[in-house]
Amino acid sequence: MAEFLINTLGFPAWLAWSATAGVAAFLILNVIAGGALVFIWAERKIAARIQDRLGPTRTGGRFGWLQSLADGIKLLAKEDLMPDGADTLLFRLAPYVSFCASFCAFIAMPFAFDVVGQRLNVGVFFVIAVLGLEVFGVILAGYASASKWSLFGAMREAAQVVSYEVPLGMCVVVPVMLAGSMDLVTIGEKQAGWISNWYLFHDPFTFVIFWVYFTCAVASVNRAPFDLAEAESELVAGFHTEYSGLRWSFFFMAEYGSMFLVSGLAAVLFLGGWNGPIPIAELAGWSDGSAVTAPYAVRLLGCANLLAKATAGVLLMMWIRWTLPRLRIDQVMTTCLKYCTPIAAVMFAGVMLWQLFLPGGLVPGGRQGAISVREGWLEQAAEPPAEAVGVRRSVPQQLAGVAD
Fold first, then answer.
1. What is the pLDDT of residue 167?
2. What is the DSSP track for 170-204?
3. Closest CA to 142 of 184, 97, 183, 90
4. Are residues 1 and 122 part of one domain?
5. 125-134 in b/e burial notation, b at 16+ Cβ within 10 A?
6. Is residue 54 part of a domain?
7. pLDDT at position 42
8. pLDDT range class, residue 362, cuts 50, 70, 90
9. What are the C-alpha distances in Å from 4 to residues 9, 24, 166, 172, 383?
10. In terms of domains, do 12 and 117 share one?
11. Could you tell me the residue range of the domain that residue 27 belongs to?
């Protein structure tokens, strides 16, 4: 987009890049805010079905589609309260710190090939590192609330998040090792093709480590059965007990945004990213780049694939929340230190040995060793227009360049 604004419309470079960043930030913000509205409604309906109830049925017709919007209006109109002994600055700042951590992690999260806010060669660990900063908002909220129950909830979540980052990091390293890159776009494109190319089915060890990752991801975003920071029977509502109105809603927007992020990251790392189980783009003849609309169709199809996989991950988290009982704090830490961490370490070693002795899989030549022609052609399509440098290459020439 920036190249188009500079080369075609004659925008100054600083204005073109600022406009591009603004558009990317606006789109990401709408993914988080719009996703939160949908997921709040979905969680109520899922909880109702599991508990043999109806859920929202009045606001928005039979299915209660507008219930989340009604809740948002209520929160906007609700009085913003603050305890007398609270630290004014930190109390007001905490919700925005949590939300910004979740928001900023989306910068390096690709939704399709080249559909990413900022492509980074260390995108995997950027997402994990920035997402971990959300706990600072929780600690600030608990400390500034002048409530011992809020402080206890904040300290519980801090201990939980820091502990689960260890096995989570081990799980993330496995796809990085298989792809030979920390670039999320490259990791996703390495899994192009049929479903057998997904890292989930690469070997038995990656299959196991995917579920370890998902367990740690549920704990890292403070979802049941690991939501000890919000244990109502002990801490009322945990770190956000003293919050109301719009600031209270920011904590929940951050939570649902983080749920979608870790689910999307799981899709990119293990479930083929934006590549579907069937290579529809290749079967439809878009791989040769002959159709003018092919780049847009491939990207749109990729976005739909990734959004569907991430949404499925969020719905699975909701199912788990309303099915399993909440664990005690000692059980939460035991699950991390005595189960998740050793299993992740053993599976990591297993994948390493598998790569050493069976780099091509059980069936020789059955797994793609390099990015296919479609991905190479998309690489060419993602480059600045050839006219900008006075050179114009045809599609066959582009494909020849990819083959070289």
1. 95
2. HHHHHHHHHHT---HHHHHHTT-SSGGGSGGGS-H
3. 90
4. no
5. ebbbebbbeb
6. no
7. 94
8. low
9. 7, 15, 43, 35, 11
10. no
11. 1-45+59-77
Task: Say if 169 falls within a structural domain.
Answer: yes
Under the banding of pLDDT at 50, 70 and 90, the label for residue 294 is low
For residue 337, give both structure tokens.
Answer: 């230190």
Do 350 and 334 have their domain in common? yes
The number of domains in the chain is: 2
Does any domain span residue 355?
yes
**H helices present in 244-340, as ranges:** 245-270, 280-283, 294-321, 329-334
- Amino acid (one-letter) located at 281: A
Q: Three-class SS of residue 112?
A: strand
Total residue length of the chain: 404
pLDDT at 192: 86
- Assess whether 374 and 388 both reside in one domain: yes
How confident is the model over 218-229, as pLDDT tens digits?
A: 998 888 888 876
pLDDT tens profile 154-198: 888 888 888 999 999 999 999 999 999 999 999 998 998 889 899
Tokens standing for residue 360 = 């091509």
Q: Are residues 22 and 84 in the same domain?
A: no
Examine the domain organization and report whether 104 and 28 are in the same domain: no
The pLDDT of residue 402: 40
- 134 neighbors 103 (Cβ within 8 angstroms): no
Domain contains 275: yes
Beta-carbon contacts of 150 under 8 Å, excluding residues fewer than 6 positions away, are 141, 142, 235, 238, 239, 240, 241, 242
Nearest to 202 by CA among 192, 212, 191: 191
Same-domain status, 199 and 282 = yes
Whether 88 and 21 share a structural domain: no
| Nearest-10 Cα torsion for 350, 353, 357, 360 | 60
In angstroms and rounded to an integer, the radius of gyration of the C-alpha atoms of the chain is 23
**pLDDT of res. 20:** 84
| Percentage of the chain modeled with pLDDT above 90 | 44
Contact between 7 and 388 under an 8 Å Cβ cutoff? The reply is: yes
In this structure, what DSSP letter does residue 225 have? Answer: T
Q: What tokens appear for 85 in the block?
A: 């002994």
